[in-house]
Every structure is written in C-alpha cells, then in structure tokens.
C-alpha cells in the first residue's frame, strides 16, 4: 500500500510561533520523540537565522539517526553554506531552499521579475547540489502564484537538481477544492514532475490547513508538511496529529498506509506544549483534554454499551493507554521501570535513582498517583541541559493584612548561594522578585504565568507554566510539583536557565 511521507516542521515553522524560543536541548528532545514516532523528515531550523538555531540544527543532525534532517535556506550562498555546515553530520541531510513565486511577493518583497526568481532558484538549487542530492525546493506563496509560472519554476528547479518540490499555501488563503485542483494542475503542467516528490505546506489562517493538505493528498501530493499541535507562523501549520489520525482512521477512504507510530502522539503533543509554552485548547482535535471525554448522558450511555457508538478513535491509539499496575508509595523499582518501558522513557541509572526518589516523595504526599502524575514528573527532567541555577529552599509568608514575603535559597553551578527575601504585590510576585535579586536578572518581563492541576482532586500535582521576555526573546519554563509555590519558582528559574544556555556563546 502506498503512503505519504511526513515532513515535520515543528522545530522551524513551529518555532516561528510568536513568543516561542526553543533552546537546542529542547529541540533535540522533541526531535528524538519525532524520530520515535517515525516521521520521515525533521526540519530542525533555519541555520543562518541565529547562532542558537545553527547549534540546534547541528545538535539534531549529529544525534538523531535513522531519519532525514532538513535545514532551511533562502536562495543565497551564505544561507546554503550555513545550512550545510549545520547538517553535514546528519545520516541523511536535506537542504531546503525556497523563494517566493507570487506576484505580490516578487514585486514588493523580493523586487525581482519572474525570470530573476527562476534564475535565483536554479542557482540556489545548483549551489546546494554541490553538498547533497537531497534538495527540497519551495515556491513560497505558491497558492497565490500563476500556475503556468509555477510550472516553469518547478521544471527549472527539478532540472537543476531538486528532488522534492513543495507547494506551500503560505498565507492560508486556499480552500480545499481549489488547493486540490492546484496540485493537479501543477502535476499536469510540469513536464518532469514525475521525477520528484510533491510536497504541500499549508497554513491555518482560515482554519483549513488540514483540509487543504488532505485535498492535496487526494490529488497526488506524496509529502505533507506538518507541525505538532499545529503550531507555527500566525495561526500555525497543518497539525501533525490531525493529518496522521485522519489518514489512519479513514484508511478505508484514503487507501494509504500510515507508517508512523500513532501511540507516540499524546506524549509528543505534551512535550511540545510544555517546551514551547503554547498550550492546547481543550476542544483541540485528537490531543485536546476533551477529545475523548463524554459529557452528555445519552453519549455516556452509548459509550458504556459500546465505545464505538460515539468514539471514532480509541484513545489507546494515540498513546493514552491506562496502565493496569497501580503505582504508589508501596511500589518498587521494578514496577516503576516497567512503567517507563511501557511508555518508552529512557533514563540512565543515575537519573532513574533520582527519579525513583522523587516518585516516592510524591507518593508520600499524594494517595493516588496517576499515570498523568508520573508523566508530569518525568516531563520535569526530559532533557538535560546546563542548569546554572537550582532551587534549594523556598518559603512564602502571605495572608490577609500581611505583606507577601518570599525567602529563597538557590544553588549556582552546584554551590549554594546566599538566600534572599523580598516583598511583592502577591506571593508569586514576591517569589519572582527574590529570584531576580539572587540571579542578578533585573531585565525579566513576565509575559504569562499559569497554574494547572495535572489531575483532579485536592492533592493534585500543580503544573506551573511561565513565559518571560529577556532581552527581546521569550523563554518558557515549566514544572510540576505538589506545592505550587515551588512549581512556580522552579518554572521561573527554568526560563532563566534557558536564557543563559541560549546566550552562553554570545
Ligand atoms: C514563509 C517562511 O516561513 S520563510 C522563513 C521565515 N523565517 C524567518 O524569517 C525566521 C528567521 N529569519 C531571520 O532571522 C532573518 O530574517 C534572516 C537572518 C534570515 C535575514 O535577516 P536580514 O538579513 O536582516 O534580512 P530581513 O529578514 O530583514 O529581510 C529579508 C531579505 O531576504 C530577502 N529574501 C527573502 N526571501 C528570500 C529568498 N527565498 N531568497 C533570497 N532572498 C530572499 C528579502 O528580499 C530581503 O532582502 P533585502 O535585504 O535585499 O531587502
Ligand atoms: C519556507 C516555506 C516552506 C514556508 O514556511 C511557507 O511558505 O509557509
Ligand atoms: Mg510556513
């Protein structure tokens, strides 16, 4: 059975979501999870755009094997050299060059004629071809371009050496029947198109990214570009989980094999939400909190009698399996290891011992430890990076008629530094003021702060999310603890640590 190749751009277009900055270690953790899910290509970044992004692409290229790793480049020698420098140690590197093809972009942005765009595209593809045969060429804003010009541009790019041509709906303007027809037209009008994969890259400005991508697949697209949770520039990209589950659930209709491991979806989605700070709306298809919840009595009655009355997918298919072993304060290492194996988490021996201790601490405080609690605890330590500051001690004094005061002690590079106490407008503000004083970080602007409960019940774990602006970029932090003041402090410190890692070579 044929299949469509999945090109994931969470780490490139996804990172273009307003307010998202991922440090290289976060990109690596996400890339490893994408590889586990068996996507075909990971676009790890745009190496010329910054030192941090160059390092991230390099880290992914060097460490994630068995998968193609792509880097983006404009049709400029400097971009292509930089992309190759970052990608060269990948097992299967792909250079992705692009140039805009619509009249609006050519006239106002590029200030180039059609012939100049073709020349730049051909020169860019040929220049990339000295490094690798694996070249993808994108015609930015293809859906607002003249189709005869697109066909000429693609013909020239293929002759120059492109192996994949990408047809983006860059501004999410198309509607499904029209976008499907565009793919068909390009196929009919581009004489050498049979030599290459046809890719699509759809944006969600009108909420049609997934529908447009599926229409393209029906009209012969062989690669689809997606991002986890649909994040990306403006309203985002086609959501990976929606495309995969549409093809999987409606195999009867599309007749395509799904080669991805769908059971990795839930974990991937949570990892991306935690790392980017872009939370998932409750009614989001596939991965929203309500996606498998039933509220109405008639539905509940139907599901109790036969699940498929109201469920077209089984939650287990996306990895929301319920572990039968009950883990709690009486569980030992074997049961916890079994849980980690089942959910495919890899911890080395030293990290496992530390995690086992934290699990026991949690079980002492919380009667019922759910799978979600354990996964939230694991998510605190999914990727290892240089943590300059660590929380050593915290206490907060607050109440009616009291001036909220926090006392905090931190470790800096493993050594305990002095404690400090500060007042604030509220207890959380007092914590953050104290951390600012201890770390010497006076230039932090708190953009958002949120506390969620991981599960229900008064002993639920509290999950804190922070987004802070430091030197014009946003850094996020996340932590789950039984004590929300501790979770808030740890999340705030995580954002500071990420800033320090991101800027350490500057
Ligand atoms: C549709 C997309 O998602 S495309 C990817 C968009 N992603 C990003 O832009 C994120 C990363 N970008 C960046 O960090 C910066 O924009 C950089 C480093 C790439 C470039 O920065 P600068 O050199 O300061 O240029 P700036 O971004 O202001 O302008 C873009 C320039 O590239 C040109 N350009 C745009 N696309 C292309 C292209 N595909 N091929 C060649 N030139 C291009 C523009 O015409 C403009 O040229 P000009 O300076 O001669 O007017
Ligand atoms: C770089 C290209 C593929 C892009 O992101 C777009 O056109 O939206
Ligand atoms: Mg895009």
Task: Outline the biggest β-sheet.
Answer: 8 strands, parallel, barrel
Number of spatially distinct domains: 4
Query: How widely separated are the two ends?
Result: 50 Å
The whole-number mean of residue pLDDT values reads 92
What small-molecule ligands were found? acetyl coenzyme *A, 3-methyl-2-oxobutanoic acid, magnesium ion
Major sheet strand order = 1-2-3-4-5-6-7-8
The top-level CATH class of the largest domain is: Alpha Beta
Oligomer: single chain
In CATH, the architecture of the largest domain is Alpha-Beta Barrel
The CATH H-level homologous superfamily of the largest domain: Aldolase class I
Subunit structure: Homodimer.
Family: Belongs to the alpha-IPM synthase/homocitrate synthase family. LeuA type 1 subfamily.
Cofactor: Mn(2+)
Pathway: Amino-acid biosynthesis; L-leucine biosynthesis; L-leucine from 3-methyl-2-oxobutanoate: step 1/4
Topology of helices and strands:
Blueprint: E1 5-8, H1 24-37, E2 41-45, H2 51-63, E3 68-74, H3 77-87, E4 92-100, H4 103-110, H5 114-129, E5 135-140, H6 147-160, E6 164-169, H7 176-189, E7 197-202, H8 209-218, E8 223-226, H9 240-249, H10 251-254, H11 265-276, H12 297-305, H13 333-342, H14 349-365, H15 371-379, E9 389-397, E10 405-412, E11 415-423, H16 427-439, E12 444-453, E13 462-470, E14 473-481, H17 484-502
Parallel strand pairs: 1-2, 1-8, 2-3, 3-4, 4-5, 5-6, 6-7, 7-8
Antiparallel strand pairs: 9-10, 10-11, 12-13, 13-14
Bound molecules: acetyl coenzyme *A, 3-methyl-2-oxobutanoic acid (KIV) and magnesium ion (MG).
């Amino acid at each position: 059975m044929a299949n469509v190749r999945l090109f994931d751009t969470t780490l490139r277009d996804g990172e273009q979501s307003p307010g998202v900055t991922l440090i290289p270690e976060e990109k690596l953790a996400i890339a490893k999870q994408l590889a586990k899910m068996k996507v075909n290509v990971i676009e790890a970044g745009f190496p010329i755009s910054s030192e941090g992004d160059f390092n991230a692409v390099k880290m992914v290229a060097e460490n994630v094997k068995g998968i193609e790793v792509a880097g983006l480049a404009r049709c400029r020698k400097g971009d292509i050299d930089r992309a190759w420098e970052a990608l060269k140690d990948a097992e299967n590197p792909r250079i992705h060059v692009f140039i805009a093809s619509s009249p609006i972009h050519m006239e106002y942005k590029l200030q180039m004629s059609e012939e100049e765009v073709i020349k730049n595209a051909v020169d860019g593809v040929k220049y990339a071809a000295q490094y690798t045969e694996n070249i993808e060429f994108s015609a930015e804003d293809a859906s607002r371009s003249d189709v005869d010009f697109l066909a000429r541009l693609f013909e020239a790019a293929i002759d120059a050496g492109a192996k994949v041509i990408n047809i983006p709906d860059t501004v999410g303007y198309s509607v499904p029947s029209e976008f499907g027809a565009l793919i068909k037209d390009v196929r009919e009008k581009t004489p050498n198109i049979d030599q290459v994969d046809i890719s699509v890259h759809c944006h969600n400005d009108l909420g049609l990214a997934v529908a447009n991508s599926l229409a393209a697949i029906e009209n012969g697209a062989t690669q689809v570009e997606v991002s986890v949770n649909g994040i990306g520039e403006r309203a985002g990209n086609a959501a990976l989980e929606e495309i995969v589950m549409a093809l999987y659930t409606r195999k009867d209709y599309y007749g395509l094999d799904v080669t991805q491991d769908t059971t990795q979806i839930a974990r991937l989605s949570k990892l991306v939400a935690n790392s980017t700070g872009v939370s998932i709306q409750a009614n989001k298809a596939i991965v929203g909190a309500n996606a498998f919840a039933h509220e109405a009595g008639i539905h509940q009655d139907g599901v109790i009698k036969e699940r498929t009355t109201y469920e077209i997918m089984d939650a287990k298919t996306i990895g929301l399996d319920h572990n039968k072993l009950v883990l709690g304060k009486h569980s030992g290492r074997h049961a916890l290891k079994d849980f980690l194996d089942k959910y495919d988490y890899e911890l080395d021996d030293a990290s496992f011992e530390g995690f086992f201790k934290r699990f026991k601490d949690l079980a002492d405080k919380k009667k019922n430890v759910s799978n979600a609690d354990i996964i939230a605890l694991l998510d605190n330590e999914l990727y290892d990076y240089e943590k300059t500051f660590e929380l050593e001690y915290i206490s907060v004094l607050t109440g009616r008629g009291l001036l909220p005061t926090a006392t905090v002690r931190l470790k800096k590079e493993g050594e305990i530094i002095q404690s400090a106490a500060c007042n604030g407008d509220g207890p959380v503000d007092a914590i953050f003021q104290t951390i600012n004083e201890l770390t010497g970080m006076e230039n932090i602007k708190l953009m958002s702060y949120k506390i969620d409960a991981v599960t229900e019940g008064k002993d639920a774990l509290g999950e804190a999310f922070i987004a802070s602006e430091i030197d014009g970029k946003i850094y996020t932090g996340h932590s789950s603890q039984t004590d929300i003041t501790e979770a808030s402090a740890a999340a705030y410190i995580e954002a500071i640590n990420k800033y320090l890692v991101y800027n350490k070579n500057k």
